[in-house]
Amino acid sequence: MGIVVQKYGGSSVSDATSVKRVAQRIVATRKSGHDVVVVVSAMGDTTDDLIDLANQVSPLPPARELDMLLTAGERISMAVLAMAIGSLGHEARSFTGSQAGVITDAEHGRAKIIDVTPGRIEAALAEGAIAIVAGFQGVSQTTKDITTLGRGGSDTTAVALAAALGADVCEIYTDVDGIFTADPRIVPNARQIPRISYEETLEMAANGAKILHLRCVEYARRNAIPIHVRSSFSAKEGTWVVHADEVATMEQAIISGVAHDRSESKITVVGVPDKVGEAAGIFRALADAQINIDMIVQNVSAATTSLTDISFTLPRSDGQTAMSALARLQDSVGFERLQYDDSVGKVSIVGAGMRSEPGITARFFQALADAGVNIEMISTSEIRISVVVSEAQVDAAVNAAHAAFDLGTDEVQAVVYGGTGR
Amino acid sequence: MGIVVQKYGGSSVSDATSVKRVAQRIVATRKSGHDVVVVVSAMGDTTDDLIDLANQVSPLPPARELDMLLTAGERISMAVLAMAIGSLGHEARSFTGSQAGVITDAEHGRAKIIDVTPGRIEAALAEGAIAIVAGFQGVSQTTKDITTLGRGGSDTTAVALAAALGADVCEIYTDVDGIFTADPRIVPNARQIPRISYEETLEMAANGAKILHLRCVEYARRNAIPIHVRSSFSAKEGTWVVHADEVATMEQAIISGVAHDRSESKITVVGVPDKVGEAAGIFRALADAQINIDMIVQNVSAATTSLTDISFTLPRSDGQTAMSALARLQDSVGFERLQYDDSVGKVSIVGAGMRSEPGITARFFQALADAGVNIEMISTSEIRISVVVSEAQVDAAVNAAHAAFDLGTDEVQAVVYGGTGR
User: Fold this and answer.
1) Which residues partner with B337 through β-bridges?
2) Distance (Å) from the C-alpha of residue A182 to the closest C-alpha of chain B?
3) The Cα angle at residue B45 between residues B44 and B51, in degrees rounded to 5
4) CB atoms within 10 A of CB A318
5) Alpha-carbon distances of A359 from A254, A353, A355, A356, rounded to whole Å
6) Is residue A92 within 8 Å of A85, Cβ to Cβ?
7) What does the pLDDT read at residue A249?
């Protein structure tokens, strides 16, 4: 029996009762013969409470100190979880990210893992103990300061440890049963996906699905670590995220799921002179302002005007910064005006099967048209088609796409489709 | 200007408002030209809350994990304090005990400092930053696990850092103005002591005075670190604890203060055969049960009986354990019976001046007699006389002693004489 890495999010360890339930689950895995390494997030609202405290003493807390503060959250949850396991008669030892050998760069608040040296974890396992590791944190290779990994950090910690330890599987426990064909809050008969490829999961995550974070899936894909997303509230099998060739052809639907994202805005630069280098100037200014652009569309210019419009989407939180950066360019570039729209949403269909199946785009767009949904922008990859629509039409668009590709079951899901912040 | 180490207890950093006040005080010290190292305890009730949480998941939390859990408390307070200093325009960097180089043995919950290697603190000071260090914690030299130092641990951290850094002074901030001639809750006109020797402070601490812990004073004495005990709520000079020869003769009262202690019990072993080795057997059994004995009195045996009584005091919390250990000896030692009394109190007068002044004992005992206080046990050192009295008579005994040696002022203290747990 090999090593199993399990990750429990904050909602799975929100209080003493849920910590004890998780402890029983961990002990059951240990009893089945596996070596168990557990990555845990901060309990419930701890992180938010600590951020509130920071804001009470400082309008802009220094990033180094904010990381020091926030890592107290996992320190509490991991020690309490180790105690709960101890009271079930099994030895558990907790380790900070630093003790577990999670080495990062020095970018506080959004550090990247650059190495994992889990010598103390291996020693604990060799002595028969269960190892509990603080998620979301590491130690900077250069400054030796404590860092946090930012969003998705605990999931990434789990996958990185699984890779470094040569684990058989990384189990991500959450408050839903797995990855669904669509958000069940929007599509009541959404179906849980039994197996899905890393590539499709990446596209889902990048386009608004909240179960797994992009960097965690990417880390797993690169290191060939199978991820098993499952509920900490039930013993049911969840969703396996694996290499595409491990998803049996008979299981492979044309479309695996429908993702949506309400977190973006759309900016249109109207009346840009249709000359070489103008678009580059615009996107250089946005890059200098540290803004990540998602979709970009440049209209075909009407031959009579030699002017064009450029539209792009970006995180809504960057909207003001981007508009200011662009306004400063107006004279030099000579565009007519800027339009800002923060009532847009993105709906994407994702599926490896679309590679070999013609007519997917037509079927998707026809379904949207039949539902009265107007398409504002389009973007595609090999295994994904995304459209930007009015935010008010997102639900209708998701349902139309879900039905058009027969993704639903006859059952209505009762669960809430949530996400983990870390 | 040299290095100043300041220690703030949990009551000085109980919430965001008090953290900001402490930050201003630290910055003022920095502005006056000193390098500042701050040792901080956990905020307010944090430690109690964490212990409650531990007890919710485990009846007997493993000591290693309890230390991991409790050290989250200082992690929070030190980061928040660093942020508050940052928002005043000064750079502050927080360090865990481990990062600050506080090396301990592996005795979780009551670790001893065996070395301090403050390289990172010195580097921070050299770069102009204020260093904030978590009190009460260190890292085990052998296991590399996080340890806590137990009661008085934060004060001891501060003094140990002051010694390792060659600081000019270790300032211990608390919620009272300094060390008093007696507890002002009992003696309303108790006087604040401006300067007192290490030796007297040790006797005061060992005999119930709660301002400074024994191990902290002992560490300071051994390393000749002046301690300045003062209030975090005022700018007044507090009490300086220094070498005896730095206490000017003209300042030196015969008696420096009156300490009292209500935390002990008295056990009397009645009718012990007056033979060689019997007492040794009794105290061997108590030592094996890890019980610290304070005062011991053996009655002169009446020649006619060849039986004697042995009385001793011990921490009340060890009472049951001691009685059980002794009861098991009854047959082998052959004593008559055991008496247990937990309604006793100890009152001590402490003063280096009593060395050269005859008649102190007589004056003390006469004052007690005049106040109607019955003396149950007596113990003396070169600079201290202690008596055990009935717990109900402790207040009367303290007041009588205080008045007998003219320790009071004409003013009545309004402050509350409290203590710090760490």
Assistant:
1) B270
2) 37
3) 145
4) 19
5) 11, 12, 10, 10
6) yes
7) 64
For the domain made up of A3-175, the CATH class stated in words is alpha beta
Q: Which residue of B has its CA nearest to A139?
A: B99
Give residue-wise pLDDT tens across range A51-104: 999 999 999 999 999 999 999 999 999 999 999 999 999 999 999 999 999 999
Helix (H, G, I), strand (E, B) or coil at A119: helix
Compute the half-sphere exposure of residue B176: CA atoms within 13 Å on the CB side of its CA.
24
How many angstroms separate the CA atoms of B253 and B211, rounded? 20
Distances (CA, A) of B86 to B20, B80, B83, B128, B403: 11, 10, 5, 13, 49
List A residues 23-42 in contact with B (Cβ-Cβ < 8 A).
Answer: 23
- The domain spans of chain B are 3-175
Measured from the Cβ of residue A117, the count of other Cβ atoms closer than 10 Å reads: 12
Distance (Å, whole) CA B396 – CA B388: 13
Residues of chain A with C-beta less than 8 angstroms from the C-beta of B57: 16, 19-20, 23, 80-81, 83-84, 87
Q: Which residues of A122-131 are buried (b: 16+ CB within 10 A; e: fewer)?
A: bebbeeebbb
Instruction: Say which residue the tokens 């960057």 belong to.
Output: A318
Q: Tell me the Cα Rg of chain A.
A: 23
If pLDDT is split at 50, 70 and 90, which confidence band does B192 have? Answer: very high
Question: Coil, strand, or helix at residue A377?
Answer: strand
C-beta separation of A110 from A152 below 8 A: no
Could you give the CA distance from residue B139 to residue B123 in angstroms, rounded to a whole number?
20
> What order of strands is seen across the sheet that includes strand B264-273?
B296-298, B307-315, B264-273, B337-341
Radius of gyration of chain B (CA): 23
List, in order, residues 6 or more apart from B191 with CB less than 8 Å away: B180, B181, B407, B408, B409
What is the ipTM metric for this complex? Answer: 0.84
- pTM here is 0.86
Collect contacts of A323-330 with beta carbons under 8 A, ≥24 apart.
Answer: A323/A267, A324/A289, A325/A285, A325/A286, A325/A288, A325/A289, A325/A291, A326/A267, A326/A269, A326/A282, A326/A285, A326/A286, A328/A285, A329/A281, A329/A282, A329/A285
